[in-house]
Specification:
The structure is a single chain. The protein has 10 helices and no strands. It is mostly helical and about 240 residues long. The protein has one domain: Orthogonal Bundle (Arp2/3 complex 21 kDa subunit ARPC3). Helix 2 (about 30-60) runs parallel beside helix 5 and helix 8 (about 160-180) crosses helix 9. The chain is globular, with a radius of gyration of 30 Å.
Length: about 240
């Protein structure tokens, strides 16, 4: 057998393409970037929770009317828009803890219910693109519940029935309405209580509308836009 054939066959084997080893699967998420995101989420949660507590604290000692109240739920809602539900709930709880240290547990509970929960609710609805009408009505229900919760809590702490004070005010309003309508009858207790609940709900609805307007202007500038308002609001504000 000729030795040159062995040499030629060896050369052919060396020239053939060798199979490449399989690549190890790489993780789609860089561990370093994930750690950076977690750090940013923690920092922003602490910052926005402190901002929410500070707004409540300033409004309590230096009340500026309804101006600062509009911003109560917005920091928590912004947390939900940027980092999701876990950061929003953590921000609400941290705000409550800070207010517990600064003002006592009563004021912190009054902040959490309804404004802390409302911030989470608004953030969840805005992130999912829920229309304004539904988010406003749901937020108004939370605000109405928070109103009655505050009255119940303060009635226990003060030892007085504060709801009876509201009923007395509503009685005068109901009598004035009956007089204007020409109804010669005494308003019943059921009508008076129903009137009080309706007015509280309407007040909460107006408050939620103002919160949506402020969030529309502020969060758009921060790069976290909320769903677009209804057409009639865009026409009034000339907003696109």
């Amino acid at each position: 057998m000729d030795d040159s054939n062995w040499v030629d066959e060896g050369d052919e084997l060396r020239n053939e393409p060798q199979p490449t080893p399989p690549k190890m699967p790489t993780s789609p998420l860089n561990p370093k970037s994930a750690k950076i995101r977690q750090t940013l989420a923690m920092v922003e949660t602490a910052f926005l929770a402190s901002a929410g507590s500070l707004i409540w604290l300033i409004n309590y000692y230096f009340p500026l009317g309804p101006l600062l109240r509009i911003f109560f739920p917005i920091p928590i809602a912004l947390l939900y828009l940027r980092w999701g539900s876990r950061s929003a709930w953590m921000g609400a709880l941290v705000s409550g803890l800070l207010l517990t240290v600064l003002m006592g547990p009563t004021r912190s509970i009054v902040f959490l219910i309804p404004y802390g929960v409302m911030g989470v609710q608004l953030g969840a609805f805005w992130r999912r693109g829920v229309p304004w009408e539904f988010s406003m009505i749901t937020g108004a229900l939370l605000g109405t519940f928070g109103f009655f919760f505050r009255f119940w809590l303060f009635s226990i702490l003060l030892g007085e029935d504060l709801w009876q004070y509201i009923i007395n005010q509503m009685t005068g309003l109901a009598e004035w309405i009956f007089l204007r309508l020409g109804i010669l009858a005494q308003p019943s207790a059921v009508f008076i209580q129903l009137l009080a609940v309706v007015l509280i709900f309407v007040n909460s609805l107006i408050y939620l509308f103002a919160v949506h307007l402020v969030a529309l202007l502020v969060l758009d500038k921060l790069g976290n836009p909320i769903p677009r308002p209804p057409k009639w609001v865009q026409v009034i504000l000339d907003y696109e």
